[in-house]
Amino acid sequence: MANGLVNPLYGLLVSIAIKSFYEPFDQMKKDAKFWALMFTALGIAAFLMDVGQRYFFSVAGCKLIHRIRLMCFEKVVNMEVGWFDEPENSSGAIGARLSADAAMVRALVGDALGLSVQNLASALAGLIIAFTASWQMTLVILVLVPVFGLNLYVKTKLLKEFNEDVKVSFVFHYYT
What we know:
Radius of gyration: 26 Å
Mean pLDDT: 85
Low-confidence stretches: none
Strand content: under 5%
Oligomer: single chain
Helix content: over 70%
Distance between the termini: 56 Å
CATH superfamily of the largest domain: ABC transporter type 1, transmembrane domain
Number of domains: 2
Structural class: mainly alpha
CATH class of the largest domain: Mainly Alpha
Number of strands: 0
Order of helices and strands: HHHH
CATH architecture of the largest domain: Up-down Bundle
Largest sheet: none
């Protein structure tokens, strides 16, 4: 979650730091040093949090893979002998399934879950900052979010149709 706070905090720091450009030169010089240190600290913290996020979610994913593989292997070992006679249950197929299925779960836990938590924290922090800055403007933007979602949906659908038309056109011209 801390990694998700980096971008909203960066935006907040930039908006506060810009205000220092409108002060007298001596005060601006003093403020510039302070804000340079703040941005450096935020950069170091962002680096450490990103490494920490990737490490801890990778460890959680590896432990989950170990448990899943162990449970699946125990189930396979306790199957009837006739089950192993079927071609889709050969030792190679079982090994490949154990490897591939566990890897998909690890990708889901390690990468997708970490990114989801980060994005949720970022969105919540952005909303809190927005509400404290101007609650009226934030409400207007929140009302428009479904319109943006609809726009994205229509755009994706039209691009898919356009892509299919281009494929058909390309294949038609290529083979004629």
